[in-house]
Amino acid sequence: MSVSAEIDVPKMRTINYGLVLLFIHFHLFAFYGLWLMIFQVQWMTMLFVAFLLLIGYIGITLGAHRYLAHRTFEIENSLKYFFILAHTLAGVGPMYNWVLYHRLHHKFFRTDKDPYLTHKGFMYSYFWSYLLDFPYTEEELKMDIDMRDITVPSISLQKGLYWIYFAVITLLIPIYIPIAYWNENLINSIFVVGFLRLTIMYNVSKMVNSAILVWGLKPNDKFPIEDNTMFFLNKSYWMNYHYFLPWDWKSTEFGPYDKGLTILLIKIFRNMDLLYAPKTISKEDIREVIVKVANKEMSWKDSLILLKKQSDENALKKNLRFKH
């Protein structure tokens, strides 16, 4: 049974009480870790946690999201291995599973078959959907989502040995470093470097899948927005654009287009010859395709395929010019 089969998915999604208990305990421990970070831990531990959060953020946003889920660019093997390590440090599950569920999220966006149930609102998508069982096996999911490009030895190895990697790379080594190198207290290291850091990364990972409900505008909404949220949220239609053309490397995870830390990092990696052929599309190409759709010269689905083809060709041409 594939996900596309006509079944009543909501009735099949039940509460996983084990996940509920894990969620409650992890967040309670994280709040205690936050208290320790404010009042007890050393400055070196704070800086170390910030560094680990940055590496984990890169693993989720650039590694799992931009590169693997949407193939917005190509990378050298050294950067691929760094992304795998960074995603492992984030502690949000195997990269393969993250990509599989994110691709499923895009395919069934705003439907009951979206694993993150974005059509039910932010609170439901961000909190409740992660505490429900998903009624499909991995094999059933792969009937709808092509994962052949992800089935490579390095990704498969991380998936197969994930819990060993998690124990050693995600937990033991980061917790041990502050204790060994600047005499941090064991309890401080466990609750701050362990629970607090992993809870933050878990919530960052969830936000990637629910960001459109925060920074995105609904159809027919005014732009710019004219309510009090304008003072602390940069809402726009760029999040909606990402769901039409997810392979555009300039689409960021949390709102703006062609701005922010991940955009800067992509440019740095490209100049270091670690990243190449980033895909995007010009406004002119988009206008031409919209005119063809409006004149009924092609369907909307065919127009998206054409834009993807044009972006691939343009990326290869620009990459040749960039190298020469």
Automatic annotation (TrEMBL):
Keywords: Fatty acid biosynthesis, Fatty acid metabolism, Lipid biosynthesis, Lipid metabolism, Membrane, Oxidoreductase, Transmembrane, Transmembrane helix
Signal peptide residue numbers: none
Keyword Oxidoreductase on entry: yes
Cofactor: Fe(2+)
Annotated InterPro entries: Acyl-CoA_DS
Localization per record: Membrane
Membrane topology field: Multi-pass membrane protein
Segments crossing the lipid bilayer: 15-35, 47-69, 81-101, 160-180
PANTHER family recorded: ACYL-COA DESATURASE, FATTY ACID DESATURASE DOMAIN-CONTAINING PROTEIN
Entry similarity comment: Belongs to the fatty acid desaturase type 1 family.
Domain description: The histidine box domains are involved in binding the catalytic metal ions.
Protein name in UniProt: Acyl-CoA Delta(11) desaturase
Species whose genome carries this gene: Polistes dominula (European paper wasp)
